[in-house]
User: Fold these one by one.
Assistant:
Number 1:
Amino acid sequence: MLTSLPALLLIAVWAWYGRNTPREHPSVSALELAEIGSEGLVKDTVHGGADAGISAVDPQPSVSLKRLLHLAGDRSVLLLALSYMCMNYTFYLLSNWVFLYLVQERKFSLLESGWLSAAPPLAAAIGAGIGGVATGVCCKRFGARWGFRSVPLAAMPLAGALLLLAVNATNPYLAVVALAACFGCVELTEGSFWGAGMTVGRGDTMSVCGIMNTGGNLGGIISIPIVAYLSGRHLWFAAFLIGSGFALVSAAAWLGIDVAPAEDTGAPPLLASTGSARIS
């Protein structure tokens, strides 16, 4: 109950400050409203910056089941969900099971394990911030397709290698360092996932990111019985090895995710003003 109080306070602040549309908010200037436009037009900054002009966005008041199934059938959306699911197996392995691993396998005391198990989430927080900046830099340098792919293709195999380093390290403190570095690498990819979800989805961003995040939650659901079973038999190497495998699959899936701008591919975005979908 006590830990829920900050969240309730945040909800109250948001209810007071938030608005349904930019036009309703007193902090949005006339210049910003002019840039947004009165008919749902926005600057296409992702696909070429300020000089890219204006691209239409057709926000939908509701999404039908048929539309969701149509979006879920897109290759890039499916691969985003698959990659995010595999990444989140590793994420939940690190976020949920490190404390038990340190106590059960590395023989730290409960108090010391509590302190040491805080290192991986702190590294994850730093990694998420760095990953967002790195993704932006890569997109500017390499374009959207390889810009979004670059960080996951580098970070997830490294995360898999760090998992194996952690479980095989003879020094228990080296194992903690490797686990922290691993979690940092995993969270480097968050900017790529959510940026790609918005770029692929455009006006269907909420639906596309919802499908992707459902995959992410499945990664957590899958990890619970696997790690619980293996840890109960002290088979931590197998648990970490499976995590490394999921990390590699997560990276490989990015090779099939197409987040190139429509003008580069000659195909319309997933949601154009006509409502048509691009099947990659």
Number 2:
Amino acid sequence: MSPADPAVVLETDALEVARAASGEGVRLGPLDWRVSRGEFWVVAGPQSSGKTALLETLAGLLPAAGGCVRVFGRPVHGLGDDEASLRETRRRMGFVFDGDGRLFSGLSVAENLVLPRCYHRNEDPSEALAALAPLIRHLQLESLLSRGPASLGRSWSRRVALARCLALGPELLLLDNPLAGLDPVHLRWWRGFLADALAGHPVLGGEPLAIVATTDAIRPYLPLHPRFALVEGDRWRILPEVDSVLAATGEDGPPQPR
């Protein structure tokens, strides 16, 4: 596919993920990869294999050691002084970090949620909160708005972080290990949300999103029928068959209870 193809949301050409924030040394790669609208990719691999660094490189948060990343046809590295182009590209993607999502501890849940709109669209907090009301209801966060992140459990913090990343209506979601450590109720909710996002739920803009998620274990994702890639050592592999993914991650064997 060419960069001009409107279906292509994210693509990498000979991408090399760096070992350090300086961009020096190759940790993973080269990667030649395409992600289209409505596609759901799960990138599996053991802990500390470079999955988070890969996501942060795709988002332009870390420099690449080599190669190219394009999001919506625009490079996310090497733009020089073209900060406006980079900001526009980043507004079209959302990133949820592992764990508690890196919420701002000194802000309430509501203040965390409105921050992207206040910053990028120059809305005042009350205006932004009103605009986000349908999303807040959809994510079942109404009762948490006045609370601080420290008072939330990890599962609810992660959902607040998801809402914050959805505040600008992104077309691409980068999710770092989003299903890890969830109880059955939150796991069912997340799988329902991911299915809605891939189908183009009205509260998410009505168009199918592209989603890339990392994971240490793939079984929680199997009901969603994603495409799989594996990070292992410094190698990147696309695995077309679920059985080969289970074997590669050491998860082959009897299914685990859901």
Number 3:
Amino acid sequence: MKIKAAVLHEMGTARPYSESRPVQIEEVELAPPGPGEVLVKVAVAGVCHSDLSVVNGNRPRPTPMVLGHEASGVVEEVGEDVTRLAPGDHVVFVFMPACGACEMCRAGRPSLCSKGFSTNAAGTLLNGAKRLSKDGVPYYHQVGVSCFAERAVVDQSSLVKVEKELPLEDAALFSCAVITGVGAVMNTAAVPKGASVAIVGLGGTGLAALMGAKAADAGKVVGFDLLPDKRAKAIELGANEAFDPLQEGIVEQVGGFDYVFECVGNIQAMEFSYAITKMGGTTVSSGLSHPDKTFCIQHVNLVAQEKTIKGSYLGSCVVERDIPHYIDLFQRGELPVDKLISRRIGLEDLNEAFDRLADGSEVRQVIVF
């Protein structure tokens, strides 16, 4: 079938994107679902920093690629061997498909599926197939999803069924922002009641982590961001305080925290996060910088203060378990994720949306189809 989709042909185009137009809205061909695959009509898609990282080249991927990885939608058709989903089901997408058979999957850590990592990097579905093309030229899939499009064909493991009573606009945020931020707090770090928490970077993932810390009954929760509007949003969502990380003397002023969550994806933020982690504390990073980048810490400080540095991918989630749990917390008022949406746009507005995202002026922009 023919669908409208957002296509990236070349990474690293100069800003402003509103002028250089790296993302083109094209009519492309979408093949029907094969065995184990599902056709989904996309309802709402979130514009995430991980998408920007592909556009600006920080997350190198093959092109031409149909972008998008955070979304909700409705199942229209299922392929052979799909048993847990049916037409009419409401679903959210997941950006790490899981094979269920590799070492990490068998160990209960599907967010680290080795096959999923390799096929995501290759720009294919989990089985190695491509279902997108134009004029006979195959187009690549972004992390097995490519939801900046009217419809998407994905592996069934890239979907989680949600109840139909949940608005699809809210459901979309559970696809990435919520599981990445809340999961980092509840799974990767397992923040205990009363612990002190800092969140560095108050975008969609950072504010979701803040909500997760509040839901985990953490003690003092402090946010850090360069932009005053985002610091104000953190206070609105329950942070005790919020600071500019570039404020002179801020490290000495705030002291140390039991858990610090780096949600930016740059080296300065990572090094700042480690600096405000207290003795015996833990720094958790869910941000993704360019593969060439490295950060620097004082080795003796790591050892003598017994600090811990951890990475968190997909919030260390088991999505079939965690997404329903986080939705339940949302419905009980403990994770007000609907407050993350800062702007609703159309598919044709993506280049301008990436400019706003790069400027840091938005929390979560969503494409409404």
